[in-house]
Structures are given as C-alpha cells and as structure tokens.
C-alpha cells in the first residue's frame, strides 16, 4: 500500500491480487494528492512561478486511508506530510516529506514503510531534488533525482532527461497545486501541467468542479472540488474517477479524497490534530 502519489509502480500493470493492491493503500494517499495536482498551465493563466501563500515551515498533515473490504470500509494505512524550511545549494527550500505506512496489524501480511522527499525552491515552488525510499514487502526502491531548471534537465542514477519550465515531481506538485488561484477558473475548466516520474514526463490536468460544503466523520469544511486525470494501471482505472476536496481558504489543505480502484474503493480523510 504505498500513497501518497505518492508512485509510478502504482500505475504500471502488475498482478491483481488483493494484497498486492493493498500494499499501495499508503501510496494511494500520496498519489491521491500527487495527482490531485497534476497540471498547471492554463491557456489564460500562467501557473509557473507561483508565490507560496499556503504552506509553512512546521506544517504537518496526517491522513487515514480506508479501503473497502467485503463492502465495509476498514482503516488500512496512514500517511503524513510535513514541511521544514532548510537551505539546499544556497537556496531557501521547503524540505517536504510524504511518509506512508501500513498499520502494524497488517505488517505480518505486507509491511510497507515508504518515504518521499522533495526540496522545493521557496521562491518558484519548483523542485530542486526528489528522493524516494520505498520498502514494500521486502521490495526496496531508492531514487535520487536532481532538477536543473537552467538547462531544463532531470538527472537520476539511470539517465538524464529533458524537462519543461514548469516540471513538478509527485510530491512538489501537491504544494504547487495548493497555491493555484481557483477563482481564475470556470467550472469544468482544465488546468494542465507536466510531472516527472521514473525518468518520464507525464502530461496531466486537473478539472475544476466548483465549491461545496463537505461533512465528514472528522469535521465540516467549506471546500473547493476538482478531479485529477489519473494514469491507468494496477491501482487506478485512469481518467477522472478521483474526486479531491481542499479547504476553501488561503491554505487549501486537502481534507478528503475518494476514488474507485481496480477492486473496491478508497477514502482518505484528514485527521484532526491530536488524533
């Protein structure tokens, strides 16, 4: 279960056993957020170099992921997103982390401990470095990618690829998307952008759905709604199946996500502080 976006392994075709899918539940969260983010370059609004007005050093958000099993939603995993202000290559950066893990009651079945990190330029909200440390049922992945925005390149251990001016990684995209001014968009308008993942560039988008009042088991919120385009694969069906709700305030915090997956459905809730 690896959420969060955050990842491409989540989308690449593999075996369809229940427990193989369950290993991605944590990731679902990361991914959910990641993909709620994917595309930021509207025809009438330049979205590169957004100014940060939403996140701050010390911010910590925790989410519980529920998965449908035999028609019943059961809590399967948890994910946490944190942000600290640091210096990287003489630039002020937000060092953001997305950590996902299965609950201990599931560890004997399929233990997951995933960590995604992004070093985001505080001035441009573009990623400078992306690190992925994944441990899922004995399978381990260690990725390290450096972005050069002067030459538009992403350099990993495997290769160097050409990127675009507004490129995001799966984690930085979450924080970038939170700074979109949705008041500039009409209902059903698409907000496109490009994301780097596993040495490939993916063109994606967000469809703005408007505003609503949302009541969940953890609270009531005034929200902004949108649907991200997903990459079809093992976990997701692709298309616009996922719906994301973020707070309708200056912070735009994701509070609830729901989406069908290949088998069953997933619901993701923001946990109140202290829970």
Give a written overview of the molecule:
It is a single chain. The chain is mostly beta strands and 275 residues long. The protein has one domain (8-270). It contains five helices and 14 strands. The longest helix has 11 residues, at 25-35.
Shape: globular
Main sheet specs: 14 strands, antiparallel
Beta-strand fraction estimate: over 45%
Provide the spatial order of strands within the biggest beta sheet: 8-7-6-5-4-3-2-1-14-13-12-11-10-9
Helix content: 10-25%
Notable traits:
14-stranded antiparallel β-sheet, single chain, 5 helices, 275 residues, disordered N terminus, 47% strand, mainly beta
Question: What's the quick description here?
Answer:
With 275 residues, the protein is mainly beta.
SSE topology:
Elements: H1 8-11, H2 18-22, H3 25-35, E1 60-69, E2 72-88, E3 91-102, H4 104-110, E4 112-121, E5 127-136, E6 139-148, E7 153-155, E8 160-162, H5 172-177, E9 190-197, E10 200-216, E11 219-228, E12 243-247, E13 254-260, E14 265-270
Antiparallel strand pairs: 1-2, 1-14, 2-3, 3-4, 4-5, 5-6, 6-7, 7-8, 9-10, 10-11, 11-12, 12-13, 13-14
């Amino acid at each position: 279960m690896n959420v969060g976006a955050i990842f491409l392994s989540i989308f690449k075709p593999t075996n369809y056993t229940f427990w193989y899918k369950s290993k991605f539940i944590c990731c679902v969260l990361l991914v959910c957020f990641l993909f709620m983010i994917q595309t930021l370059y509207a025809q009438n609004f330049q979205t590169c170099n957004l100014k940060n007005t939403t996140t701050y050093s010390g911010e910590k958000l925790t989410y519980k992921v529920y998965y449908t099993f035999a028609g019943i939603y059961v809590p399967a995993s948890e994910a946490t997103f944190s942000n600290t202000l640091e210096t990287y290559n003489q630039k002020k950066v937000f060092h953001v982390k997305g950590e996902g893990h299965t609950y201990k009651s599931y560890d004997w079945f399929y233990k997951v401990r995933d960590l995604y990190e992004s070093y985001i330029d505080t001035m441009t909200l573009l990623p400078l470095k992306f690190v992925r440390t994944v441990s899922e049922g004995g399978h381990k992945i260690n990725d390290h990618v450096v972005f050069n925005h002067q030459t538009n390149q992403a350099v990993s251990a495997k290769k160097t690829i050409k990127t675009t001016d507004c490129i995001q990684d799966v984690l930085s995209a979450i924080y970038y998307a939170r700074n979109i001014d949705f008041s500039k968009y009409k209902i059903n308008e698409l907000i496109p952008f490009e994301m780097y993942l596993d040495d490939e560039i993916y063109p994606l988008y967000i469809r703005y759905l408007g505003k609503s009042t949302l009541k969940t088991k953890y609270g009531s919120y005034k929200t902004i709604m949108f649907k991200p385009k997903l990459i079809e694969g093992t976990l997701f069906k692709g298309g616009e199946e996922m719906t994301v709700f973020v707070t309708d305030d200056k912070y735009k915090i994701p509070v609830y996500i729901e989406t069908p997956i290949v088998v069953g459905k997933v619901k993701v809730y923001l946990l109140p502080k202290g829970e």
